[in-house]
Amino acid sequence: MSTSPTAATQHVEPVENPLALARSLAPLREFVATTTRIVEQPQSEAHCVEAVRGALARLISNDAWLPASAAQPHPEHYQQYLLHCDPLQRFSVVSFVWGPGQRTPVHDHMVWGLIGMLRGSETGQNFKRDENGKLIPDGPRQTLSPGDIEMVSPRTGDIHQVANAYDDRTSISIHVYGGNIGAVARHVFDLESGAVKPFVSGYSSAQTPNLWDLSHIVRAELPKEPA
Fold first, then answer.
1. In what order do the strands lie in the sheet with 113-119?
2. Helix pair angle (45-59, 26-39), 10° resolution
3. How many whole angstroms separate alpha carbon 54 and alpha carbon 38?
C-alpha cells in the first residue's frame, strides 16, 4: 500500500512467451486449487488460516512464478495487482509491489489476511486501542524477509501500517485475504486527530493472469507428426 488508500489503475503487459508463462504459473495454479479446497471445508477461521499459511509458504518459497506484469512498481504509490479472486469471493490473492520508500497509512482489513514476503523486505507496525480508544503501537515494529508470513484478522489484530524496508529498491509481498479485498469497505486512521476515513482499495490491474489457458502446454505435448 501507499500513502494513498486507493490503488491507482495502471496495467503494464510485458511481452512474455506463452508456453513459458503457462508453465511458470503452475505454483500459483496449485495454490489457488489448494486454497479453494481449504475454504470449502466447514472449519474455524484459525484452522482455515493455518492451512492456507502452509500453502502460501510453498508458494513464496521461490519467486519465478510471478508474472512480470504483476511485479511493476509505480513511482508514487504501491501497486496491488489481483492474481486471483475466488468466484464466490471467499478469498483473493494479490501481489503488493512497493517502490522505494513507499508506505501505507494506518489501516484495517475487515477480513483475515496472510502477508507472505516474496522479494525484498517490508516493515509492519501493529496498533491497538488504549483504554481511551486511542490507537497506540502494539508491540515492536516487525520486519519481514523473503519466506516470512504475517497474519492480520479482526479476531486477532487488524490495524497496522506497512512500509518498504528499502529506500533504493522494490519489494514485493503476496497477500491472501478472506474475501475480495479490493471491494471490501475498510478504514484508514489518522493517529494525530483520531479521524477514521472509509476507503475501498480496488486493484491496480485491469486484468488477472490467465491461469487456465493450458493450451500451450497441451499443444507442446502432442505427438509430433512424421516429417
1. 79-85, 92-98, 171-177, 113-119, 149-152
2. 170
3. 11
Q: Which of 78, 81, 64, 67 is nearest to 11 (CA)?
A: 81
The torsion of the CA quartet 39, 44, 48, 51, rounded to 10 degrees, works out to -130
| Cβ-based burial of 89 (10 A; exposed 0-12, middle 13-18, buried ≥19) | middle
What's the pLDDT tens digit per position in 174-186?
999 999 999 999 9
Ramachandran region, residue 110 (left: φ > 0; alpha: ψ -120 to 50; beta: rest): left
Q: What is the pTM of this model?
A: 0.88
pLDDT tens per residue across span 66-117: 999 999 999 999 999 999 999 999 999 999 999 999 999 999 999 999 999 9
Scan for cell 504501491, then name that residue: 78
Which helix (H) or strand (E) is 45 found in, with range?
helix 45-59
Q: Which three cell numbers stand for residue 59?
A: 508458494
CA atoms within 13 A on the CB side of 39: 21
Which helix (H) or strand (E) segment holds residue 101: the answer is none
Q: Return the closest-CA partner of residue 124 out of 111, 113, 110, 132.
A: 113
Determine the pLDDT at residue 2.
40
Q: What is the DSSP letter of 225?
A: P
Q: What is the CA radius of gyration of the chain?
A: 18
What sign does the CA torsion over 113, 117, 122, 125 have?
Answer: positive
Residue 98's closest CA among 77, 125, 126?
A: 77
